[in-house]
Design a protein that fits this description.
Number of helices: 9
Strand content: 15-25%
Strand order of the largest sheet: 3-2-1-4-5-7-6
Number of strands: 7
Shape: globular
CATH superfamily: Vaccinia Virus protein VP39
CATH architecture: 3-Layer(aba) Sandwich
Largest sheet: 7 strands, mixed
Order of helices and strands: HHHEHEHEEHEHEHHE
Oligomer: single chain
CATH topology: Rossmann fold
Number of domains: 1
Distance between the termini: 41 Å
Radius of gyration: 18 Å
Length: about 270
């Protein structure tokens, strides 16, 4: 069973329901460890309120854009995605929530052509989907203002996407690669003209276990039959405390390795 069809099913449920979408964002922030790491890193980079020009590069459901509207109050935020329905749904939600300085557009990151426009670029779980990753990184470098920052979250090559060698099929569809090594992503970012300032492994020993019990196994259950989705509340009743504890431990641990990476670069 694959991850993307289940993700799409839940996304369709909340597509045009403002209340349900807000609840959906809260669940994503709670249950996905990458959100814990990304939000912690954003707050570490910008501990005091700032008004910035922000680019959410591959915003998906828009949950990180929503977080940034609250953390960077008054900022102008542009989110882009290659999927029309994602863009339409995000525009609908944010317009109905009254966010005047946020907009979403359909765009291919290999073809964007911004120059010195953004103070901060966020790119979460996107680079693993793109074959021409170095072209995208150069586009990000061009898009950043001097002193601007790029934050990338992506799987590592140490079991990212739940694949443990090059020939193993990813649990998550549409990946151009299973993940990056520290050396690979650092070299590609620096060839694009940026300087890596932070590197962190996520999903270490605690995070990997939390992902299996919190995300992978429930998705496998739901994949057998949609009827089985009804048993998930009972599943989480017994496992959620354990999953959240492991996620918290992962964010507090300086992981020597991990199946995810969080990288920050500066122009």
């Amino acid at each position: 069973m694959k991850y993307d069809p289940i993700k799409k099913t839940f996304g369709n449920i909340v597509a045009r329901n403002v209340f349900m979408r807000r609840l959906f964002y809260r669940i994503l922030d709670l249950m996905f460890l990458r959100s814990w790491h990304v939000r912690n890193m954003v707050k570490s980079l910008y501990p005091a309120p700032k008004s910035l020009r922000i680019f959410d590069a591959g915003m998906g459901f828009g949950q990180y854009t929503y977080f940034m509207t609250k953390w960077f109050k008054g900022s102008d935020i542009l989110g882009v995605d290659v999927k029309d329905e994602q863009v339409e749904d995000c525009n609908f939600f944010f317009e109905n929530r009254g966010f005047k300085n946020v907009k979403f557009e359909v765009a291919d990151l290999t073809k964007i052509n911004y120059n010195n426009e953004f103070d901060f670029i966020l790119n979460v779980d996107v680079m693993e989907h793109i074959v021409e990753d170095e072209l995208v990184l150069k586009n990000f470098a061009n898009a950043l203002k001097k002193g601007g920052k790029l934050l990338i979250n992506t799987p590592s090559d140490l079991g990212g996407s739940d694949a443990h060698d090059e020939d193993e099929e990813s649990f998550i569809e549409e990946h151009a690669r299973n993940g990056y090594s520290k050396e690979d992503i650092t070299a590609k970012i620096e060839r694009a003209g940026l300087t890596v300032t932070h590197f962190k492994y996520a999903y270490g020993k605690y995070g990997t276990i939390s992902w299996r019990f919190g995300i992978k196994y429930p998705i496998l259950i739901a994949g057998v039959s949609k009827i089985l989705i009804l048993i998930l509340p009972f599943y989480y009743f017994f496992t959620l405390w354990f999953v959240l504890l492991l996620m918290w431990l992962d964010t507090k641990t300086d992981n020597e390795t991990g199946t995810g990476v969080v990288v920050v670069a500066e122009k």
